[in-house]
Design brief:
By secondary structure, the chain is an alpha/beta fold. It has two domains: 2-138, Rossmann fold (3-Layer(aba) Sandwich); 149-191, no CATH class. Helix content is 54%, strand content 15%. It has helices at 15-27, 44-60, 74-84, 100-108, 124-138, 149-162, 166-180, 182-191; strands spanning 2-7, 31-36, 63-67, 89-94, 114-119. Strand 3 (63-67), helix 3 and strand 4 form a beta-alpha-beta unit. The two termini are 31 Å apart.
Length: 193
């Protein structure tokens, strides 16, 4: 899976943490895009390009990992951006800092896509493995759908007039059918037993 690993590298005492988190993500078979927040330029055109690079990385990722031990004002914004893109997020904070950072993010951004965890260098692999296990259950599956010109025309219209992506229109229609399908509900109920 593709992951964006985001952190503020303004405090060098956490550099070993960043390296270990990156290694743990790669060792679990993920392609990691590392985003260091301290590298944002003060030159407006360059800053715009760097900002767009971060946003594109989030959009292309299957999930996001954010190390929150070093506070940066942009972290909350990036978490919200990832949630808007329906990306699961693992917000990590070093256990030496206590549970305050973890409880802050749980309070500030309440969303089922956000998992806040404390970690140490000893247990980071387990924390990431646990998160990856839960992510595989909620991550969206992508598939290609061939549609008629009439359906495409409707989706274009709905996209423009309802301010939704075409995929959201299709997903909403399928979810509505699922909610009304009694046979499917029986099937789901029987598989949970």
């Amino acid at each position: 899976m593709k992951v964006s690993f985001i952190f503020s590298q303004t405090d060098s005492k956490f550099n070993k943490n960043y390296t270990n988190i990156t290694s743990a993500l790669e060792n679990a078979g993920n392609k990691v895009s590392v985003i260091k927040l301290n590298e944002v330029s003060t030159e407006p055109e360059q800053a715009k390009k760097e900002y767009q690079k971060i946003i594109n990385s989030i959009k292309k990722s299957d999930f996001i990992v954010i190390e929150t031990s070093v506070q940066a004002s942009i972290i909350g914004f990036l978490m919200s951006t990832a949630i808007n893109e329906k990306k699961p997020i693992l917000a990590l904070s070093d256990e030496k800092l206590g549970k305050d950072s973890e409880s802050f993010w749980n309070y500030a951004i309440k969303n089922k896509l956000l998992a806040c965890k404390t970690y140490s260098l000893k247990n980071i692999n387990e924390v990431i493995a646990e998160f990856l296990s839960s992510v595989k259950k909620i991550i969206d599956t992508k598939f290609i759908l061939i549609i008629s010109p009439e359906i495409d025309s409707y989706l274009e219209w709905a996209s423009d007039n309802r301010r939704m992506h075409k995929a959201q229109v299709v997903r909403r229609a399928v979810e509505e059918i699922m909610s009304l399908d009694k046979e499917y509900k029986k099937f789901i109920t029987s598989t949970k037993k």
